[in-house]
Target: CstA N-terminal domain-containing protein
Amino acid sequence: MSAIILLILGLGGMVAGYLVYSRFIATRIFRLDPDFKTPAHEYEDGVDFVPT
Model:
């Protein structure tokens, strides 16, 4: 097998692993939510909590 084929397979595997594993971490580990309100928005009082 030539080196270029191994390089392409290796890079393809790395990209596929990155995409799959990053989605797993976002959903299962960190439980990311697009509707999450930050404390600056949740407790906005104009003095201490001011969203930027």
